[in-house]
Amino acid sequence: MLFEMCSCKKCGCFCKDDPEADQKFIKIAKAYEILKDPDTRKHYDIHGDSGSSDKKPQYHSYTYYRDQFGIYDDDPLIITLSRADYEVNVLDDTQAWFVNFYSPNCHMCHELAPTWRKLASEFEGVIRIAAVNCEDDWSLCYQLSIDSYPSLLYYEKEAHLYEGQRYRGPRTFDRLKDFILSKLPRIVKSVNPGDWENDESRKQQWLLFLCGDDSNCPEDETRLKMATILNGLMSVGVVTDRELCEKISSSYKSDPVVLWRGDETKSEGFVTVHTIKGSDSKEILDNVLSILPNPESLNEQQFQEIRSKLRVNADRPWLICFYLGTATDLNLQLKRLPSLVPTVNLGLVHCGKSSPLCSSLHISRYPSWGVLKVGGAFELHNGRDVLHELSGFARDSIKSTNLHALSPADFVDIMNEGGTWFIDWYAPWCPPCRKLMPELRRASQHFDSDSIQFGTIDCTVHRNLCSQHGIRSYPTTILYNGTQTQRFHGVPSEEGIVEFVSHLINPAVITLDDNSFVQLMRKPEDELWVVDFYAPWCGPCQRLGPEWRKLARQVSEFSEIKVAQVDCVANADLCSAQNIHSYPTIRLYPVGSKGLNTVAMYNGNRDLVSMKSWLLSLLPSPVISLNGDQFREQILNKRFVIPWLVEFYASWCGHCTHFEPEFRKVAHRLEGEVKTAKIDCGEERFFCGKLSVNSYPTVFLYLDSDEKYEISSQDPTEIVSRVKQLVNDKHYEHDEL
């Protein structure tokens, strides 16, 4: 209407004084004709004005980049997966997954897209049809050995990450459809008169195909799909005996599909038989679900009673839908959820009738979905209201009993009580926030509520609270411990969050300030101290933080090493006295010197491997360096009682550089049980070749000059375990002799 009014005003018949009125009218009318039609509008968004000169610069809208770089991003039936949620979704115990790994730059991927969409529509509810954009998630594709596009992986129910079966057939709709059907479990039961009369299952729910007269009975494909969709909700059977068909439903010839609803709580004869209309699986499913009862409706009192029971672990978790108006549009979705999340109760809350409850839970849109967890925590779903996302959210959320959706009142209580909380300030529309949420849920599962609790605050709902606490970007994650706060600047992943929280709960890094710096000043000669002087606002310092904490944990078994840090903003005078002028500054106070008498500066790469190698190289090492002649003399030509563990390496080998500090840890743990040595095969190439050592690093355990075992692992714990096992077995053999 606005376009029409505007075009009328610009028309030459109304604007006689404007000589360009006709041209303006033509432009507006053309724009109106293009924009009112979705197809021409999309063509314009992608290709611009096709009538314009090719010499003019080409500009593309956001829609162009969205459509070109994410083929399935907005498809309601195809689930776009990323590295953050791939494993959580695909390792599904309720449904199989068929995943398309593609690149937007791949011509064949675009050719497959219509077929893939048709496949998603055909098998909606039967299996999950998904896609991964390998341009956005190349690391996931590399991890799964995806080396060509499109690549299709099929995951059975309860499959593991690397158990996806690669589809190698023609990528036509019919062949893909046949492949999926061949993978579906054959769970349609054949019901005969003898079993039916004596079977206890008559008291249960059945979807029965009465095929005594085959002419009108749905085909095998439809039965197979229905059995897969309804698996866990009811049994699906086929009856071919005409007398039994007649007994179950006298109208079976015209209506061969019935829903048999027995009641196990009542007498055997108490059943209801519903005629189900429809010829394909979608029509049959809609009619079946329309007959099933709705989830339980809850009022405020019932909600609080359920929450009280959950606080004492006296009930199952609940997935609750908060809605206004009627729940008719939600019926089909609600009735399919029990088969997808069978361990969760389902409930409905009408926010018109229970407005105080919805207000207290800060329900701001309808329908909204939330989970009441064991322990009493409540969490709202911020994703799309589609079945697979809701079921995935419910399965993930009920495990995260330590994650709470917080209100301003909750936050005030947390500040007053002084407990330890890790809080994510987020906005539901923010893509990084959506990626962080599943990582936060999984991270919370590593800790019990006695040590730390996790919370989320929606800044679109609680704007004033976020503004008061200086939240200007999303997501912002902060750990609160009484009056102390510390922002999280690490990798926004499960591992990164767990590492950050673990350090703050049980710190491996010693924090020094004006008062405690005396510990370093009194350092004895047998200790090595390494100190990070940093500023919280410093970007390189923030990137160093996670690596520094990992370093402290990985060298914690060396009692002589102390890893420390000094906040130069909170302790400006101390840092000034130590002549700290840039951040981060890493200083080492070595073994053999007292206090601050000797200082070494670190100017290398600030990654874990580089810092750990440098640090351990400054300690006395039990690992002996041998050349070829020494190796022959000490190991090959000599009888010995204590075994030798030997690392064969090359100075140019990157893997050897990474492994060197790990081998030092092995030597430290096995000191006194075995002798440890290393030999540089870059210098002793021919000697190592005679010993058949052709790859580096290689580790051999020599129990004597003629008996050796290769240790294939490069994990220190596994190496130590394997060496001890071999040494003990050798001692046992000697004892037997």
Describe what this molecule looks like in 3D.
- With 737 residues, the protein is of the alpha/beta class.
- The chain has 28 helices and 30 strands.
- It has a five-stranded mixed beta sheet. A five-stranded mixed beta sheet has the order 6-8-7-9-10, with helices on both faces. A five-stranded mixed beta sheet has the order 11-13-12-14-15, sandwiched between helices.
- Strand 7 (205-210), helix 10 (220-229) and strand 8 form a beta-alpha-beta unit.
- Helix 3 crosses helix 4 and helix 18 (431-444) packs across helix 20.
- The longest helix has 21 residues, at 716-736.
- The model is unreliable at 1-5, 7-14 and 50-60 (pLDDT under 50).
As laid out across the biggest beta sheet, the strand order is: 1-3-2-4-5
**Termini gap:** 101 Å
Q: Beta fraction of the residues?
A: 15-25%
Subunit organisation of the chains: single chain
Helix content: 25-40%
> What is the arithmetic mean of pLDDT?
84
Low-pLDDT sequence parts: 1-5, 7-14, 50-60
Function: Plays an important role in regulating the size of autophagosomes during the formation process.
Keywords: Autophagy
GO biological process, one term: IRE1-mediated unfolded protein response
GO molecular function: misfolded protein binding; oxidoreductase activity, acting on a sulfur group of donors, disulfide as acceptor; protein-disulfide reductase activity
Q: Secondary-structure blueprint of this entry?
A:
Elements: H1 2-10, H2 21-35, H3 38-47, H4 62-69, E1 79-81, H5 86-90, E2 97-102, H6 107-122, E3 128-133, H7 138-143, E4 151-155, E5 165-167, H8 173-183, E6 189-191, H9 193-198, E7 205-210, H10 220-229, E8 235-239, H11 242-248, E9 257-262, E10 271-275, H12 281-291, E11 296-297, H13 300-311, E12 318-323, H14 331-340, E13 345-350, H15 355-360, E14 368-372, E15 378-380, H16 387-399, E16 403-405, H17 408-417, E17 420-426, H18 431-444, E18 453-458, H19 463-468, E19 476-481, E20 484-487, H20 494-505, E21 510-512, H21 518-521, E22 528-534, H22 539-554, E23 561-567, H23 572-577, E24 585-589, E25 600-602, H24 608-617, E26 623-626, H25 628-636, E27 644-649, H26 654-669, E28 675-680, H27 685-690, E29 698-704, E30 707-711, H28 716-736
Parallel strand pairs: 1-3, 2-3, 6-8, 7-8, 11-13, 12-13, 16-18, 17-18, 21-23, 22-23, 26-28, 27-28
Antiparallel strand pairs: 2-4, 4-5, 7-9, 9-10, 12-14, 14-15, 17-19, 19-20, 22-24, 24-25, 27-29, 29-30
